[in-house]
Amino acid sequence: MTGWTKADFDLSRRRFLRGVGLAGAAGLTGLPLRAFAAEPDKPRELIVRAWGGSWVDSLKAGVSDPFTKLTGIAVRHDLTEDNEIQPKLWAAAAQKRVPPIHVNWDTTTNATKSALRGVTEDLSDLPNLKTVSEAAKPVGVDGYPIVNTYGYVYVLAYRPGAFPDGAPKSWKVLTDPKFKGRVAVYNDGIGLHFPAEIAGGGKLEDIPGNMQPAWDFFTALKANEPLMGEDPDFTTWFQKGEIDVACTISSNAREAKKNGIDIAWTVPEEGATYETDGLWVPKYLPENELYWAKQYVNFALTQEAQQVWLDGLGLPGVAPGLKPPADLVGDPSYPVKPEDYARLLRVSSKVEVEHESEWFGKFKEIMQG
Amino acid sequence: MDALEAVAAALWPRRLSSAVPWLMLLPAVVLTGLLVLGLWEMADGSFRTLDTATFLPSDDYSFANYHRAFTEKLFVTVASRSLIGSLIVTAATLVLAFPYSYVMVRTRSAALRKFLLIALFLPFFIGQVVRAYGWLIILGSQGMVNEALGLVGVAPIRLLYNYPAVLFGLVQYMLPFAVLMLAPALTAIPEEMESAAGSLGANWVRTFVHVVLPMAKPGFIGAGLVVLTLSLTDFAIPAILGGGSQDFIANAIYDQFFRTSDQGMGATLALLLVAVGSIMVGVVFALFGAGTLAMGRKP
After folding, report:
1. Taking a C-beta distance cutoff of 8 angstroms, is the pair B162, A181 a contact?
2. How far apart are CA A30 and CA B120, in angstroms?
């Protein structure tokens, strides 16, 4: 390391971020670790909120462990549910307290609420944002209070044994009396509103002005006595033979299949909801911890990190040059080309955030009736 | 010892001895005060509506959340289900708890008493969620019950994810609480009273109706109140055994706080739940008197 001058170590924050970006882009060993000599004090650990099971395993393998290897900072995963960490973060920000986590892995919809509330740090200066796709940019908010890291599809998962003639063609199968009591949807209706709008006779463009077709579809669905739960419930229900068909995230269906459950999935003719998740950093972290939290997010945007992380989840990322996992090549739940995206139903997160409460209430009203 | 007494006298002079009961009451007052403080904060929040443009509560106060709570079909449905459900669960639990408690208290067999005591306390070591999942295993489509039915040629029946399943799970959960409340009341009834009634010509039924039941009233009232309030506010059993379509009010409160981020609406529902629970307890006290719980008894 001879030949380094003080100026080399007096890195501005922006220069440092750029450096880390280069390190990431060049792979984990692209730059010698001593390039971090002028960085702020390293915290003993970063706490990253994550979903459990294969979700956290993938994040750990793709992002957290390599980040620790690169920086020496341990990463602890907080598995508090995203909905439950939110009020804690909001309360901490309202009281100007140090938040309980450094990085929140969150749905874009939830994260947008936090951004609108003003509890998120701006991530616009992350160097790797220059290389990622447009999908990384959140819609309806200024700058980058959140960075979208990948997209996912709410597919129609089914038990092949119950469909001897092949995959169901339409979401209307959920209302087919033949499957009465053997269908499942999320207990907040998430992922189903948009296909329900179309299956109920409406158009995507009608959202949010006229949601009646979706409510009609949900009313028909209610008559079919659906089970309603969360991701782990779906896996259990498929495993125990309680259900034949469900609306769920493709990752969960894929994970269930990996675990030996007889399950397949499809994107029906009406299309399927496409959403994104992302990472964000809450306000009121100490300066040095904020700095390293941002490095974590920046690192998560590198091609190397995303390839491992998202291979585990089977989801399309935002870094350039990612290759789909072998089992998902050509799979409609893993969009790659523009025509793949044409089959997917997307509504701006701003519209979703503004109407989520109202849609949730209506869904519940129908299903609890 | 003298030295200790001297220190105690210095720290707490004898003239302050009348304040000792109040001092002992202090922790309870502080705890209750903190709860009231929390309720006050929630009351403040309940009058503020959520602005979905900023996800901040409004600066203005209004009754909008309360209006929604009383007029929106979802909340009315869930509240009615909770109220009716808690009443059914209370009645069923008391009916089942009484014979259990009676046998446990009156049996001459030490082995049987031990067995009943173990069976009573064992569920306390198993959390509510685990017990609910246990019922999923037993009552599921491929569970033990349906497998047994299959042996006699009966096709699988959907036993879970409906209102009866939730009520069943709640009764099973509440039974030990009710037995624990009833047993001391039954123990307090001298066995000689029943013998005396018998020797005066009363058959078992008349003895039960005219002696045991009236004397066990404090136990019934106490057990009923505990089961009623716990059932009314339960979250896990409706969530797990209801299959997402049999929410109780606690589930609706959770949804408002954690799903829609509408803390004002969540606070409103929580306060209404506290109010309804308090009114129900108040009505019981008004009808039967707090004395039925052996409170306010003159020395």
Report:
1. no
2. 64
In B, minimum Cα distance to A185 occurs at B244
Q: Which residues of A touch B54 (CB under 8 A)?
A: 116-118
- In whole angstroms, what is the distance from residue B34 CA to residue B28 CA? 10
Would the CB atoms of A369 and B142 count as touching at under 8 Å?
Answer: no
Q: Give, for all 299 residues of chain B, the pLDDT tens digit.
A: 688 888 888 887 888 888 888 889 999 999 999 999 999 999 999 999 999 889 999 999 999 999 999 999 999 999 999 999 999 999 999 999 999 999 999 999 999 999 999 999 888 888 899 999 999 889 988 889 999 999 999 988 889 999 999 999 999 999 999 999 999 999 999 999 999 999 999 999 999 999 999 999 999 999 999 999 999 999 999 999 998 899 999 999 999 999 999 999 999 999 999 999 999 999 998 988 765 555 555 44
From the CA of A179, how many Å to the nearest CA of chain B?
13
CATH superfamily of B79-293: MetI-like (1.10.3720.10)
CA pair distance A278, A136, nearest whole angstrom: 8
How far is it, in rounded angstroms, from Cα A248 to Cα A153? 8
Q: Is A369 on the interface with B (CB under 8 A)?
A: yes
* Assigned token pair, B181: 């409340």
| Domains of chain A and any CATH numbers | 6-151+276-326 (3.40.190.10), 153-272+341-368 (3.40.190.10)
Strand partners, A74: A45
Interface of A with B in 76-105 (CB under 8 A): 81, 83-84, 86-87
Which secondary-structure segment (H or E) carries A120? none
Residue A87 C-alpha, separation from nearest chain B C-alpha, in angstroms: 7
Residues 6+ apart with CB under 8 A from A220: A175, A200
Output DSSP code: residue A317.
B
Which residues in A lie closer than 8 A to residue B262 (C-beta atoms)? 357
Question: Between β-strands A147-158 and A103-107, what pairing exists: parallel, antiparallel or unpaired?
Answer: unpaired
Q: Do B77 and A365 count as a contact with CB atoms less than 8 A apart?
A: yes
User: Cα A238 vs. chain centroid, distance in angstroms?
Assistant: 23
Q: Does ipTM surpass 0.85 in this model?
A: no
Q: Are A177 and A191 in contact (CB under 8 A)?
A: no
Please write down the HEC assignment for all residues of chain B.
CHHHHHHHHHHCCHHHHHHHHHHHHHHHHHHHHHHHHHHHHHHHHHCCCEECCCCEECCCCCCHHHHHHHHCHHHHHHHHHHHHHHHHHHHHHHHHHHHHHHHHHHCCCHHHHHHHHHHHHHHHHCCHHHHHHHHHHHHCCCCHHHHHHHHCCCCCCCCCCCHHHHHHHHHHHHHHHHHHHHHHHHHCCCHHHHHHHHHCCCCHHHHHHHHHHHHCHHHHHHHHHHHHHHHHCCCHHHHHHCCCCCCCHHHHHHHHHHHCCCHHHHHHHHHHHHHHHHHHHHHHHHHHCHHHHCCCCCC
Task: Return the residue in A364, A365, A367 with the most chain B beta carbons within 10 A, the one to mutate for interface testing.
Answer: A364
Enter the pTM of the model: 0.85
Residues from chain A contacting residue B161 (CB–CB below 8 Å): 227
CB–CB of A154/A249 below 8 Å?
yes
Evaluate the CA torsion angle A209, A272, B259, A87 in order and state its sign: negative
Q: By the 8 A CB rule, do A194 and A345 touch?
A: yes
- Comparing alpha-carbon positions, the chain B residue that sits nearest to A368 is B245
Domain boundaries, chain B: 79-293
Chain-chain contact of A240 with B259 (C-beta, under 8 angstroms): no
